[in-house]
Amino acid sequence: MAPPPTSSGPLSQRLLALAQTLQFGWFAGHLVLLLCSVSYGFSWITFKYYTKWAQFNYRTAFIAAGATYGIVVYKAYRARSRAGSRQQGGILSLATDENVQYLAMAIIWLFSKQIPLALLPFMVYSVFHVATYIRSNLLPTLSPPAAASGAPPGASPQSKTPVKQSALADAIGKFVKENYDTSMGLVALLEVGIWFRLFVSALTFRKGSLFLILVYTVFLRARYAQSTFVQNSVAHLGARIDATVANQSTPPAVRQGWGTVKGLIKQLADLTDLRKFAGGAASGAKKPQ
Q: What is the C-alpha separation between 1 and 26, in angstroms, rounded?
């Protein structure tokens, strides 16, 4: 989102230059989201999730989420405008942008009743975004990496001269690399789990539950079209249900009913594939940031 920080100038000047970027606001938003989510988690564990402090943390976390995804969407729009591509896209093109989808859901969760599970996918993303920003921007600003032997003094970090990263930066990089795929799989499971949580609420006719299940179904359908992690989670869940239904103790009516439901879901998925209407724009969608 931004060029590497400069290593020249005093520390206060480097920090000020860093803090004046949109990317720092993006980082601050993810950090606030993470801290508020952890604080709310402690409130939830101690059954104090409806106290004013818990509600403040819950709402602030989604405000921060909206701010971070709003920054990414704004920067993407500004980049397209500068490139003279204003006419490329439209409403459907926006709908296939994962960052727009998460921005919309953050706003919806902000004004809905508390659903603690809804915080977790945003929290997982924030862990990696905060870690990556600290490694790529904050650490080099606080302690500029030493240039490799033979590099000219005061060489720009943007040059191709190899630099020696700190041990902490290496550790963060290793953590992100080793845990990213597993964590994205966890996010997919959480997002599928949220749908079932909303479905149960809809069955009990809770206020606003029908609106939430409809909106979230659209969101999850879009995520399924764009994320192999969500596709794998849904496939795994379907396989487990198939194995359960295939048991000889399962009544034939249940097997037939499950087959009918699977067929309807497949037809609905084909009818609601936005990529057909967006001219394949979904294939170019960016990862949530």
A: 10
